[in-house]
Amino acid sequence: QVQLEESGGGLVQTGGSLRLSCRSSGHTSSGRAFENTSMGWFRQPPGKEREWIATISGGSLHKFYADSVKGRFTISRDNAQNRVDLQMNSLKPEDTAVYYCNAIAPWNTRTPLFDSWGQGTHVTVSS
Question: What is the model's pLDDT at position 107?
Answer without folding.
Answer: 84
